[in-house]
Design a protein that fits this description.
cell membrane, elongated, transmembrane, MetI-like fold, about 325 residues, 2 domains, mainly alpha, 12 helices, MetI-like_sf
Length: about 325
């Protein structure tokens, strides 16, 4: 499959996915009870306003302000058209333009997520590969055990304890440490255990292969053997790389940003759900889908680069 056809295929798949997900989010927010509106009605009643007409006026004003006062199918088509043209309007909670609000938050999240992923890949592959080639080594076993312990430890609780020391005045709160270094460390430890496990498992499969045994018999260096193993183990490792990172970081981003008060993508979406801020939530959904489509495209291209025998876009029987 040519790269152009692959781009077209992934693009169409992304559009279909975006339509299904955005429609589901829209339905959930328009066909379920609106707790924000109920809060406003409750506050009016608590203040002594029980006139049905006055309460209906509050409802009508609320839906009109949020662009939800027309026939449902017309409202739906209008929202989908806005999402497709990136005319995401303004936040219903803050009044800020949604597109720069979402993209800026995503960049702040990427500021600690991308370094964490790169560090986890490098450390995970190195530890897993070394453990596969030197299974009897105490260093290898200790490194694997350490990676698993970091994964198992309640790192978010530990981060909270460090944060409480700063709040209590026991230690200072340098901006770099709390806004960047600790978030990177927490995301790194969240990913490391999985990467070590996958890298070790796939590397062990090739570490005992005939071609590696031949290289060892010819006196090949450890680096040369590692190179052969990595080349062959890279494809199955890449197949889980993006999915594993996305799955873990979706949860980690929410916890990290709430814990450290980072105005990133996770915290923005959490606040959008709490405020029923539909433009921000739909815009954030488009960004998540875009990242997913881009990740799949990078995986496909990586397969062809790692092994020319693998046709681009042909993985999993495609």
């Amino acid at each position: 499959m040519s790269l152009l056809r692959l781009l077209a295929k992934r693009g169409l798949l992304g559009l279909a996915t975006a339509w299904v997900v955005l429609t589901s989010v829209f339905a959930l927010f328009t066909l379920t009870e609106d707790w924000v509106l109920q809060g406003q009605i409750g506050a009016a009643r608590f203040a002594g306003e029980n006139d049905p007409e006055a309460l209906d006026a509050i409802r009508n004003e609320y839906f009109a302000a949020r662009g939800l006062d027309g026939p449902l199918h017309e409202v739906y088509l209008g929202w989908m058209a806005n999402m497709a043209t990136f005319d995401w309007g303004v936040s219903q909670a803050s009044g800020e333009p949604v597109f720069p609000l979402v993209t800026d938050a995503a960049l702040r999240t990427a500021g600690y997520v991308v370094p964490a992923v790169l560090l986890a890949i490098l450390a995970g592959v190195a530890i897993g590969l070394y453990a596969a080639l030197r299974p009897e080594s105490r260093v290898a076993n200790g490194s694997v055990t350490g990676a698993y312990l970091l994964f198992a430890l309640p790192n978010f609780w530990i981060g909270g304890m460090v944060l409480s020391l700063s709040v209590g005045g026991v230690i200072d709160r340098p901006a770099f440490l709390y806004d960047h270094a600790l978030p990177v460390l927490l995301a790194f430890t969240t990913l490391l255990g999985g990467y070590v496990s996958y890298a070790r498992a796939h590397s062990r499969e090739y570490a005992v292969a005939d071609f590696v045994t031949l290289v060892r018999a010819k006196g090949g260096s450890s680096l040369r053997m590692a190179t052969h193993v990595v080349r062959n183990a890279a494809i199955p490792f890449v197949s889980m790389l993006f999915t594993e990172a996305l799955g873990l970081l979706v949860l980690a981003a929410f916890v990290i940003e709430v814990l450290f008060g980072i105005d990133g993508f996770g915290l923005l979406l959490l606040e959008a759900v709490n405020e029923r801020d539909l433009p921000v939530l739909l815009g954030g959904t488009v960004v998540v889908i875009g990242v997913g489509v881009l990740g799949n495209l990078v995986q496909d291209v990586a397969y062809g680069s790692l092994d020319p025998r693998v046709e681009i876009g042909s993985r999993n029987g495609e």
